[in-house]
Amino acid sequence: MQLLLHIALGLLPVSIFLVSLIFLDSFKLIKPFSIVLAIAAGGVIAFACYLINDSALSYLTIDRTLYTRYISPVIEEGGKALYIIILIRSQRVGFMVDAAVYGFAVGAGFAFVENIYYLQAVAGTNVLMWITRGFGTAVMHGGTTAIFGIISKSLSEKQSGHSGPLFLLGLLPAIAIHSLFNHFLLPPIPSTLLLLIVLPALFYFVYKRSEQSTREWLGVNLDADMELLALISTGNLSESRIGQYLYSLKSRFSPEVLVDMLCLLRIHTELSVKSKGVLMMREAGFESPLDPEVKEKFSEMTYLEKSIGATGKMAILPFLHTSSRSLWQLYMLKQ
Question: How far apart are CA 50 and CA 44, in angstroms?
């Protein structure tokens, strides 16, 4: 019974916190499999960090307390951040709330493995220690990686890039919070309570801001996409700035390539409109079945991209909505 209590205190709080984050998201954009994959990645990272920390302590002549305060936070937060960086760079994170959920899932997986190790190593410790580990340390691991994800996603949207310095700006606060937590400036229970007050307030703010940003983005971009589709379908494209721009390219590309460029633009815009429709349906609480034509459109789009070549695609790039969110929505629809 004591072992079961320790397991519950060590693993349940962070699990409940993660489930709450998922259900609070109005759009439900992250698939359960992706969350499970993030948790598993966090577990693998925890095991790798354990090996690194154990080896470092064996070779370095440094006090364990100093190591846990200043070195292990860098290694552990850097390791957890790697998975989020991969997701952001591969355009799989659409909004800040998604970055928060992915980040907390990675941190939760890290905490699961770490607490299981502690269950094996110090199973005889008292209940207070497991309350601190479950509600404090485990939630801290999820919270710091979520904060890294939120900051990195926000900066990547503002600067339209995924460079190393950008991610470093997100990593520094995560390392600082982890280091401060390991300093034990407050007794365990007050420190845990402070964490449980600050993190929900932070996530509530992020969720509200992200949902507002999503609705604004949907409204503006949907209007622009619908206007472009109307111009293409009615044959009035030549009267628009896009048509005039394409006409100016006739000296550089053959008529066949120009037609393929226009077809690519049309299919890309149709998929963009469809993905925004899926988002609106999900916000309203409905699951939108995937149109069987979507797979065909992606195949046709791949063929057209090869047909027009890199130069042709570069020429129409300004009209393909290639921001991180636009690329993400196509990835989401394809999945």
Answer: 10
Q: How far apart are CA 215 and CA 157, in angstroms?
A: 16
- For residues 82 and 41, give the distance between their C-alpha atoms in angstroms, rounded to a whole number: 10
Of 41, 37, 17, nearest to 335 by C-alpha is 37
The SS3 call for residue 25 is: coil
Tokens linked to 60: 């370095």
For the chain, the structural domain boundaries read 2-210, 235-334
Closest by CA position to 282, among listed 203, 208, 213, 215: 215
Does the pTM exceed 0.85? Answer: no
Q: What size, in residues, is the chain?
A: 335
Q: How far apart are CA 255 and CA 331, in angstroms?
A: 30
Backbone CA torsion sign across 319, 322, 328, 330: positive
Cα 118 versus chain centre, distance: 29
Helix axes 255-283, 293-316, angle to 10 degrees: 120
The tens digit of pLDDT for each residue in 309-333 reads 887 777 777 666 555 666 666 666 6
- Contact between 222 and 166 under an 8 Å Cβ cutoff? The reply is no
CB 170 within 8 A of CB 80: no
